Amino acid sequence: MKKWKIxxxxxxxxxxxxxxxxxxxxxxxxxxxxxxxxxxxxxxxxLQGRRVRSCSRAVDGxxxxxxxxxxxxxxxxxxxxxxxxxxxxxxxVLNKPAGIDTQPTHARYKGTVYEALQVLxxxxxxxxxxxxxxxVQRLDRGTTGLMTFSTHPQSHKGxxxxxxxxxxxxxxxxxxxxxxxxxQGEIRSLLARTRKENKVVSVQHGGKEAVTRYRVIETxxxxxxxxxxxxxxxxxxxRAHMAELGCPLLGDLRYGGPAELNHTVFDRPLLxxxxxxxxxxxxxxxxxxxxxxxxxxxxxxxxxGGE
Length: 307
Prior knowledge:
The chain is an alpha+beta fold.
């Protein structure tokens, strides 16, 4: 499935003057006015290339309208305080669920990790005040686990530098098809994105250096639980490296992983950000954070016969 579906429309002269929500309900097959309102509210509608979030805005004849649908729930995702693993004046570490985009996309502003964290931190006495969230790390929509944000200008530069200089220990857990051979090792290659397939692959020249260390935690015959340490932080690095090792992630259809196993259908690549460790960018205090496997991965391990 593609990341989103796009409708590209042109307002006719007879439609000019309609409210945006009413126009969309009439122009997009199967879209109700209630659904149109929700899509506008989360930020999935663009007029003349600019996001519009006002349902009452009147459309003009000849205007170009784009509607982005991302196959996620129209109700925006919200964090609870229990999702925060650590918080101080300078930074936050949170536990990201699957199915949430890290940052705003064409399809939505509301309900991304960034926006949901802003809402969680909102001052109820001053709701218009926005926290100075700095994004220093990204996880794919389907990846769960630990993520870090800076929350103060004094910490943002230092935290960003820690990630850029590879001074952050990042360990992931993944369920992959087959058994990696050898059972532990280091994968080092140059990664580049292919436009046609929209994925990254190892190349001889022109890519960015990517280094992944891995070790087998537990084998189940047809699948394996693997711990991976990222020495670099390239997009799709783990997914590409494990696929090239002949052991793509379960559920990672883009990189050749199986869509189901033991009658369980996967709705995401089974990858979890399990551990982060770094020096606090302001106080230099050593910080270490770990999270357990999410429910879908833990259940699959049990189903396959793990402890």
